[in-house]
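Re: folding output
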Amino acid sequence: MKTAQIFLMGIFLVFISCGKKQEEKVEIPVKKVEKPVEVVKEEIIAQPLIFTIQIGAFEYGNNKIAAAKDVVTYKENNLFVYRFGSFSSYSEARKVRRNLLNTYPDAFVQAVKDGKRLAIEKALKSK
């Protein structure tokens, strides 16, 4: 008897639940607003060929060298590169390098064109 009552109660619940109206889902149209993309033209200014003296390159920064007068620090290939001076001729850079060798024995002349390193041979041929 109890089984029959449970069975009838289950059927009753099914009919009640089936008889309810389901809520209708209303789709609201969404307008897609696109922002115009602003195109910024980057003007590339050709920089002249210069010669500089590289006095060191380290994986970690060197505060002593960075604090020296007229030394510029660059970040290249995960290294801190320290350079001194900006010379228009190779011979002028070599003269200054000779004076720096007592303090920086590994110093060498580095050619730079448009912010990129350039082999000395190639730099001298392009002059």
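--- second protein (sequence, then structure) ---
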Amino acid sequence: MTTQLNNPLHGITLKMIVEQLVETYGWEELAVRIRINCFYENPSINSSLKFLRKTPWARTKVEELYLATFSSL
């Protein structure tokens, strides 16, 4: 098993990322910050995860917001 020293998301699951962002911003603010439908219409953790796993550009935006929000902590 190799360690990823330069990967700030190493060991953090997508579910953990989405849950922390929802806890910090709430669904409404998250939908404003990242304009994707899974945050607007009937948002849930499971539906968001399903969409983000299939859509690389959206996942990248979510990961970037996570890093911008929590990297300084």
